[in-house]
Design goal:
12 strands; seven-stranded mixed beta sheet; Aspartate Aminotransferase, domain 1; 2 domains; 11 helices; Aspartate Aminotransferase, domain 2
Length: 379
């Protein structure tokens, strides 16, 4: 059975180059990168080279990149790290469409007595910069707004947000997990003081992420007990994961424009084919103001959970919302925040593409999906 994977925003499968690298890596003699002997120092060099490759794709200094276990850990580190003094109450401004790792951490901090201001979004999933200005006027301790939404692909105006924060001398963090390798980042001035990234969203391995901490900015130590990651996150490095992350970033930097154009073409072909048979299908968010690889579609009258099951049996894999909300029995909080009803949210699906998908894959999937939609509407 032919399979087509359209859930790349959850995890992007390994590139062939990454798979080959992993096979070669396991044949090598490994050492601890913190060891003082020459073999250990060789691996330390490899880690630093990977750090440079990650930094180069982002457009920052390698010294500003610290490796973590995931984007979720990176997000937690910033939000909890800012609220570091036990006897002080902090104020964080965020949005109503953040990843669960931001949403749940803010809820935790709120339960601890800290002030959390949540900005609403419009029907396209974007915040209102005027409302942000009002919140910034209260001199919060941190503004944390995602760059790209994992469910809709909608892009927030992070450059403008960063400018507003900088003018008010308010630290800005962006969850850039879904932006890395999909958006050309400013190679001269990164927008913000802190950012979070993840390897498995750009065809690297799971279990490794990165934090950007701008030179001159600081965070409390996350894990004590060693000198790794400038002494801020102790523990022996995930050597394979870090090196594969570096390679994934290097490859994406070399082919970013090509990947963007390819995914935009797939996105256009897929939507056109579905709407040819089902013109009632609509986009949740914005086609133009979203990353090239993501579509969130409302399919009126369809129980998408049933569609998912039927398509899974045919080898077509996509999702209904973020994988971190995947086991939730509630409709998407992101779509609800954008004004969709519960029924509309339950009738919505996310399709996310990658450079590993072909036009043939997309047409194959779209043809099967249109047939199943027809069958569900006319049992």
């Amino acid at each position: 059975m032919k399979t087509t994977y359209l859930d790349n925003n959850a995890t992007a499968p390994l590139l062939p180059e990454i798979s080959d690298f992993i096979k070669a890596f396991v044949e090598k003699q490994q050492s601890n990168p913190s060891s003082s002997h020459s073999q250990g120092q060789q691996w330390r060099h490899e880690v630093n080279m990977a750090r440079q490759d990650v930094a180069a794709l982002i457009g920052v200094k390698s010294s500003e990149i610290l490796f973590t276990s995931s984007g979720t850990e990176s997000n937690n580190w910033v939000l909890r790290g800012v609220c570091s003094e036990a006897d002080k109450k902090y104020h964080i401004v965020t949005s109503s469409v953040e990843h669960p790792s931001i949403e749940s951490t803010c809820r935790y901090l709120s339960d601890k007595g800290h002030k959390i201001s949540i900005l609403p979004v419009n029907s396209e999933g974007k915040i209102d910069l005027n409302e942000l200005k009002i919140s910034i006027g209260e001199k919060p301790d941190l503004v944390s707004i995602q760059w790209v939404n994992s469910e809709t692909g909608v892009i927030q105006p992070v450059n403008e947000i960063a400018e507003l924060c900088q003018a008010a001398k308010v630290p800005f963090h962006t969850d850039a997990v879904q932006a890395l390798g999909k958006i050309q980042m400013n190679q001269d001035s990164f927008p913000g003081n802190y950012a979070s990234f993840s390897a498995h969203k750009i065809h690297g391995l799971g279990g490794v992420g990165a934090s950007y901490i701008e030179s001159g900015s600081s965070l409390d130590t996350l894990i004590s007990g060693g000198s790794q990651e400038r002494g801020l996150r102790a523990g022996t490095e995930n050597l394979l994961g870090i090196l594969a992350f570096g390679l994934a970033c290097k490859l994406r930097k070399e082919r970013l424009e090509k990947v963007q154009a390819h995914c935009e073409k797939l996105k256009t072909i897929f939507l056109s084919r579905l709407k040819t048979d089902h013109p009632e299908i609509s986009i949740n968010g914005s086609f133009a103001n979203s990353v090239d690889n993501c579509l969130n579609l409302h399919i009126p009258g369809i129980d998408v959970a049933a569609l998912l099951m039927r398509m899974d049996m045919k080898g077509i894999y996509f999702s209904q919302n973020s994988a971190c909300h995947g086991q939730s029995i509630s409709p998407s909080s992101v779509l609800k925040a954008m004004g969709l009803s519960s029924d509309e949210a339950w009738s919505s699906a996310r399709f996310s593409f990658s450079e590993l998908n072909s036009e043939g894959d997309i047409l194959h999937a779209a043809n099967l999906i249109t047939s199943e939609i027809r069958a569900l509407k006319n049992p």
